[in-house]
Structures
1.
Amino acid sequence: MKLLVTGGAGYIGSVVTRLLLDAGHEVVILDDLRTGHAEALAPDATFAQVSLHDAATVLTPDSGFDGVLHFAGLISAGDSMTQPETYWDINMIGSLRLLDAARAAGVRRFVFSSTAAVYGNPAEIPIRESSLKSPTNTYGATKLAFDLALTSEAWGHGLAAVSLRYFNVAGAYLRPGVAIGERHDPETHLIPIALQVAAGKRDKLMLFGDDYPTPDGTCVRDYIHVEDLAQAHLLALDAAKPGEHRIYNLGNGSGFTNRQVVEVVAEVTGQPVPVEVAHRREGDPATLVASSDLAHAELGWTPTKPTLHDMVSDAWTFYREHTQ
Ligand SMILES: NC(=O)c1ccc[n+]([C@@H]2O[C@H](COP(=O)([O-])OP(=O)(O)OC[C@H]3O[C@@H](n4cnc5c(N)ncnc54)[C@H](O)[C@@H]3O)[C@@H](O)[C@H]2O)c1
């Protein structure tokens, strides 16, 4: 297939691009590099440095794209609470412009990076796709809004749409000559921050809240290896059916407290990871653990690197060799 990957210079989009190319697809990447990295771009893909709002300049009516995989967007729950207008503009309006362009270009398949943040403080654990959606931050609200837009697009125009709701993505893609890991700036994700502390680049790790109703009082999250996540996108692309919007949670179904993650980082790196406990952050749910039963049953998805140890170990290899 000829596929457009938005956000293909970012952490997850650049890994998925590699898998798509390996599977024999033709890939064009649309990314304005606002948070992505030119070095992460796959050399065998075509690159268009274009913003989501201008997607129609790439998705022209005669461009012949079969599908879009949409990763581009802003991803910080914290920033989304202080800059809501920017999050709505990029994650919602930008995504709608992309959808308009995809429709005009006759694109039949669309896979979207949604998030566990759409569920907010979950009413049940593990979280199912049918669980109540009640985001507690603007980031999650923008993602839920675009999920709903995709449902409408499937109803109204017969799009074959899939939303993949990722839980916490971790680890790295490591091959001879290629290493892709997390390099968000500013980094807000726990594992890369803990690795920076272990490497001596930060003095300490801030743990936001230790009075949650969890085993040690710190938040519980479900982690998924970026390679397992990437594989699910290829399965979703194949499983997409015209006129349907399918939604799948992607996680491992086991939760780790923030303190447990810090312990694994200390164990893998062999370095101390000092922590300081700070107040809870606004909008942070206590526990987010996925049920991915639907992805297993309908996509045939099986994670190959489900352990936190594997994820931290790959992330550490990437960190030591590529970000010092
Ligand atoms: N990383 C996670 O743990 C996680 C969890 C749940 C969902 N997601 C979702 O997955 C997607 C990818 O996340 P990531 O971690 O790879 O993020 P990332 O920041 O590494 O990549 C995002 C990419 O999108 C590009 N981009 C942003 N706004 C753009 C715009 N307006 N026009 C064109 N390009 C633009 C950036 O330059 C960057 O290359 C995001 O949509 C995110 O919400 C990520």
Note: The chain has two domains: 2-169+223-250, 171-222+253-322.
2.
Amino acid sequence: MQTTLREILANRYAKCIDVSKRIRWDIDRDVIRGRTFDFGKKFLPDGLSRVDQLACLSGKERRLMSQIQGRTYANIFRLVERYIVAKVLEVSRGHCLGDQIALEALVRFSDEELKHQELFRRLEKMIAEGMPAGYAFRPDPDEKPRPCSANPLGRCSR
Ligand SMILES: [Fe+2]
């Protein structure tokens, strides 16, 4: 008997719900655990940051560059997580009055992605507290959409 795409997706959604119910993690309890960043160390491995190849920088400057890159990673992921939630909620609309297993799986997935957003927001704030002023990441991952004259509810579709 051949398994249909619909059956495969239904199984995946059910599995997503099952995993979500079994694995609940907390940002403070399971990730940060009272720790802080050590600004005497690099924040990314050299293999990822490639700062070890910047011969023009001193060791201290390479460490700072690695920390700037780490902070930027946190900001990029904050931004990406925001778009993931927006897309998943868009997809979930198609299931609102239909497949409730799919809807629950997508809502639970969105909840996880919101937690990821908060995690990266917290990490970025922790890094910012120990770094010199002058860093800016654009676009601001927490920026609200600008009000649009075509849509006074604040969402611009342009
Ligand atoms: Fe995520």
Note: The radius of gyration is 20 Å.
